[in-house]
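Now read the record:
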Amino acid sequence: MRGLVFNKMSGSGNDFVILDGRHTTASDWTPERIRWVCDRRQGVGADGLVILAPAGPGQVRMDFWNCDGSQAEMCGNAALCSTRLAAFLEMAPAAGMNLITKAGTFPVRCLPGPKEEAELNLPDFDLPVRPAGLKPAAGEEPPVLVTVGVPHLIVGVDDLERQGLMERGKELRFNAALGSAGANVNFVARTNGAEPGGWRMRTYERGVEGETLACGTGAVAVAVALAQGGQATMPVTLITRSGRPLRIRATLSGGRASQVWLSGEGRMVFRGVL
């Protein structure tokens, strides 16, 4: 078959079409073409598209677009998937490499074992703050805002299954208090006693403009917000909408989060030809 080989990968249900940058470049991909390939009825179907390419010894570059064709600086689950794929394609060693993104360069590595997991070391960032003029609705705790590669609004809720939660996410995502670009909205609540980790989360993701089954940098933002508020201690395990866990560890001191690590799934689902 002639065409371009693609890799369909899943990071805890947050799914991506990832292309080998040795065979295609960003100039080949218009917003319209990205929307087509990410379309779940007429294309492959994905939350986003990635072009992954070698960038020197032990280095790879990840360029990421949301499924609406907009480019984003960073995506945590795409980074975990890209780490696993870079090792599979022998672009860089599985034991450790640097992942270059528009949000910076991150040390990453594949984790041993059968679970197809990877680990991402994020740069230090300022702890969450309460955005002025943004008031909680009934059943919500006061929201906080933090940038982990991209901006995230964290909202504690009493019921993660309540009707209209994603409609509330859309409303908050475009709230003027978050600036013209808006933010991802991450809702968090305690798990039931039978679930591990203690906390569950759901995400309304900008660029997708709907719910995604997981959000890596959002999970980091949620974990840090919980630790800052004294509701959890590091390391924190969050159960995503897919039911798969994301694990976060970090040190909080002096108004900053440092030594931040995110680990989770980077699973190959299938390969195909466009």
About this structure: The chain has two domains: 5-119+265-273, 125-264.
